[in-house]
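Two quick folds needed for the group meeting slides. Do the first one here.
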Amino acid sequence: MRLIGNKTHGDLAEIGIAEFINQFMYDFTSIHVGKDLFRAKEHEEDIVIISEMTRAPFPVSLKAYGDGPLQLSTDSDMRLFPFLESLGKDITGKTSIEKIFASPAFSDFSNINVMPLIYNERKKQCNIMVFDHNAAKINTNRILYIGKGESFGDKTQGKARLHPIYMFLDSDNNYICEVRYGGATANALQRGLWTHTKNATRYFDSITSGWIDYSHNTALVRLFSLALNSTEKGHLEANEILQADIDAFKAR
């Protein structure tokens, strides 16, 4: 997907994962919500997964990111950082931290269904890693303000900040996640709830059981380019061929 473009690979992943669920996960169906609907949604889902047994919908936000900083929530209402700021710059104590996670500002912390599709282009490896929100809540021992131009610990814990953050740490001062500053002038990449796939490894579960190798598929890029310049009749004929290929693969 990255061969097609940096700004489109996430969108292509959304329709690809939605169709994968429909083709291969027999007890579930999936709907691609789309960007227009996405902007108007209460949550940040990209696809909705529906159980065929219970009919219960399950919204999922897909994130196609390089191995490193990972945004879990944009905090569109700008509640997280101002709330923490009102409590001080070094928040400790089990009771105080439990109250933070139980507060209205953090009400969505455990309801963020994020599926990060992580890649390392240099090594040509990818990983599907899920952040363990419950482990993060249970193990948070300290919430520390890191101001603009400041840093915490050694290089593995983060560089000097361009914007202030609140860093969540466990009892061994290991990084868990962070809330980036929430001022009115902040853009989506400068605020919200973030973590780091390298620094917070212990708070991720890997669906792919670790890193898997991949290679460039130039035939797929060619397929997209031809599809964008062919007729609907050609698309319908190609769909039949591709569906037959998928059916043969499932029958193995």
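Then this one, please, same format:
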Amino acid sequence: MGAWLASVLRGHYRYHGVPRNGEALSRFRYQVFRLWWRTLRRRSQRTRMTWERMQRLVNLYLPTPRIMHPYPQQRLRV
């Protein structure tokens, strides 16, 4: 599931990674993190997924947001 979510986030960053959109990308990553954590907690019948353990999984699998597209002035400069 972590590898699949990583590919989803990479595609999202490539499409929406424009200048001045970094905070929105960070919020999107946090919401994916939170929903993944809730899903894993709901599936568990014995032990609960702790916040610390989940943060290790997120740091391992989910890429950090990056701006993928430069400003038009930089892109068109030859």
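Slide caption for protein two: The CA atoms of residues 20 and 67 lie 8 Å apart.
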